[in-house]
Amino acid sequence: MDLTDSTEALKQFIQNGKGQVLGLSGRWGAGKTHLWLSVRKELRVEQAALYSSCFGLKSLDEIGRALLQDFASNASEYGEAGGKVIKQIGGKLTTALRKVPFIGEATDALLATGALAESLLTSMVVRDRIVVLDDLERRDAALSLETLFGHVDALKGRGCTVLLIYNEEELSANQGQEWRAVREKCLDVEINLRPTPVEACKLGLSTTCPDSAAIVTAAEAVGLTNIRILKRIERLTAAFRGAISDQYQPMPAYIVHSLVFLAVLHYENRFPDHQVEKFREEWAQVCADQLSNTPHSDAASLAKRCNATNDPVLLSLLSDFVQHHRLDTAVVVAHMRALDKWALNQSALTAAVHYVDLAIYDPDATDQTFLDMAGKWGATGWEGLAPQLASTIILDLERRGGQNLVLEMAMAWRKHWLQFSTEYVEQSILQGMAEPIAQAIREVNESRSPVRTVMDAINEIEVDPSSATNAGMLRVLQNISHGELRIVIENYKWNELKRFLTFYTEHLPKLEHKYDTHKLAWGHFEVAAEKIILENNKPRLSEILLRHVQMLCPDFDPMADQDESLLVEGTSSARRT
């Protein structure tokens, strides 16, 4: 039952279940005790209930003592009416003892001995009342279920309505046979509390929690109904918010979602230990290959469903925070800002592609349609678009009369390019580009000569081979023309030439079988080498290049190809004559 139905069922039982036993079961943190306390507040004074947690209790005497203590503490909360109840019970006990032969005159002395007074008071208090015994599965092993349920039968004989609260899964797992036997004999009614995530959040989160909406969303995604974990999550989000408040606001939803998932991963015992231990490694692979159809573990699938951050390093930092309360604020904020930038660029790219699609295919779009779209791009980070796409949009807006927008967008793009771009763009690509875009590229090109740019790319890939897949490195190796690459080769000193040739003949081929795009880089090199060999301005350089290219392409022979070309040309001339 969800919380609403369970509450109604419990109220009905208390109203009509005199002399019966109700079992209220549910997982730890489901809100069983909270449910009872909420119903208890609505009881009348004459319905005063007695409550005892069985956590760690070893005997029925300890349970009786706990019930008596609860009675005394809660009776005082009823004010004058509660005081009268205690006085009435105390008066009845004293009167009864004074009538017992040989005891009457010693009544006051006997009542002064705590154990006897306690025992007698308990027997009188625990009668015709609601008795609640909580945490049955957490009692001490010395107190058997058979003994405990024998006491429950005795309570029924005294006209008590008994409510037992327990985690049925734990009892079945650890005391299955004994539990099944007493459960069948003693329980008259059973409520299985299964609150919804929304109900659990309503119970577990404070009304002032600023992240409650994001927590509820994530809790629904992962099926989280443990109130204790939800309270912990609220404390975690509050601590995280306080740590970053000076550097980053507001709190992103993906951070809250990630904290909810990690709390489930580490505290709910939902996954096997080996999945928890390997999760970070698997999540890095999942984030690196978003399109993979490889089945994920339950933990990784839950992380995706919860919309946890797809930055594995950030998730690892958050995991340390959840488990050990360690937080490197500067590093975490840097990752959050990088994610913001990436999200902004993705949004801008989506908008730009949509613009181009409408310009090509939408017959109903007007000039104003595109001017309105461009007017909304101010905060999307569109200045991070690739030069060709930015130029296409600027030229189109110029044609549609959006000169003011063109000026604003061109200045923003230029500023971004000058600040962040480090790549060299081949001059031929600039032909036909919007002039503000082309001019910004020329300015960066002046500081990034082809000779230096290619060696920088080689340096980076040698240090970190995975950077060969980096878009910036690919553009360096692919976009440089064979003419510019020829200048590069002819200007290298011998030690630079050694590194250059080693990279192109040894490292680059190893990448080709994985990344076809590197074939284009090899093609530029082969053409540049061929031109140098044919002109033969530096015979020693021509010899070195021929030897290295033939290591991979044994049939490479520019001189023979030239002779064959001359022969074909001569034959054709003879035929014309």
Protein described:
This protein is mainly alpha-helical and 577 residues long. The chain has four domains: 3-195, P-loop containing nucleotide triphosphate hydrolases (Rossmann fold); 199-327, no CATH class; 347-447, no CATH class; 450-576, no CATH class. The chain has helices spanning 3-16, 32-40, 60-77, 80-98, 107-112, 114-125, 145-157, 168-186, 197-204, 212-222, 227-244, 253-267, 273-288, 298-305, 312-324, 329-361, 367-375, 387-399, 403-420, 435-447, 450-463, 471-479, 482-491, 494-512, 518-535, 539-552, 558-576; strands spanning 21-25, 49-53, 130-134, 161-166, 189-192. Strand 3, helix 7 (145-157) and strand 4 form a beta-alpha-beta unit. The longest helix has 33 residues, at 329-361. Mean pLDDT is 82; it is low at 78-83, 109-117 and 566-577.
Short description:
This protein has 577 residues and is mostly helical.
List its salient traits.
Rossmann fold; mainly alpha; 4 domains; 577 residues; 5-stranded parallel beta sheet
| Oligomeric state of the chains in view | single chain
Taking pLDDT < 50 over at least 5 consecutive residues as the criterion, the unreliable ranges are: 78-83, 109-117, 566-577
Q: What is the CATH architecture annotation of the largest domain?
A: 3-Layer(aba) Sandwich
State the end-to-end CA separation. 101 Å
How many β-strands, per DSSP? 5
Helix content class: 55-70%
Beta content comes to under 5%
Gyration radius, to the nearest Å?
A: 40 Å
Give the number of domains.
Answer: 4
Mean pLDDT rating: 82
In DSSP terms, counting alpha (H) and pi (I) runs of 4 or more, how many helices? 27
CATH class of the largest domain: Alpha Beta
Strand order of the largest sheet: 2-3-4-1-5
CATH superfamily of the largest domain: P-loop containing nucleotide triphosphate hydrolases
**SS class:** mainly alpha
**CATH domain fold name of the largest domain:** Rossmann fold
- Judging from the principal axes of the Cα atoms, what is the shape? elongated
Biggest sheet overview: 5 strands, parallel
